[in-house]
Amino acid sequence: MDHFGFKVRNLAEVLQAWRAAGLEVGREFIGAEGFPNAYLMAPDDVRIELQEDKALPVKAAAYHLHFLLGRLREAARLVASTRSRSCRASAERLSRLLMCPA
Questions:
Q1: Mapping DSSP to helix (H, G, I), strand (E, B) and coil, where does residue 80 land?
Q2: Which CATH number fits the domain that encloses residue 49?
Q3: Domain that holds residue 22
Q4: Which of 2, 37, 42, 91 could disulfide-link to 66, CB 3.0 to 4.6 Å?
């Protein structure tokens, strides 16, 4: 797997919370659809792509998983293995940061 993708209503707010937590923000850019995007680096070398969508009715929503075809078996194992403690911990920490109070 290359990265997780989320849509967020306010990209600047999420990036500020991420940085305040001492975590790394990667490249910030305008995506192919013309919206602001950024990459976050999570624990365990997990990459997260955020795309701003000001019309989103919630603060954040799952958008996509980006798999590299050369690692398809690894991706299938990751999706099938929801018991991975490190993946679960990374997902829980990400969820807390994305859902921070406004």
A1: helix
A2: 3.10.180
A3: 3-98
A4: 2
The contacts of residue 30 (CB under 8 Å, 6+ apart) are: 36, 37
Q: What would the pLDDT profile of 45-55 be if each residue is shown by its tens digit?
A: 889 999 999 99
Handedness of CA 60, 50, 2, 30 (dihedral sign): positive
Q: What is the tally of structural domains in the chain? A: 1
What SS3 class is residue 8?
A: strand
One-letter amino acid of 65: L
Backbone angles phi, psi at 86, to 5 degrees: -70, -40
In this prediction the pTM is 0.68
How many Cβ atoms sit within 10 Å of the Cβ of residue 57? 7
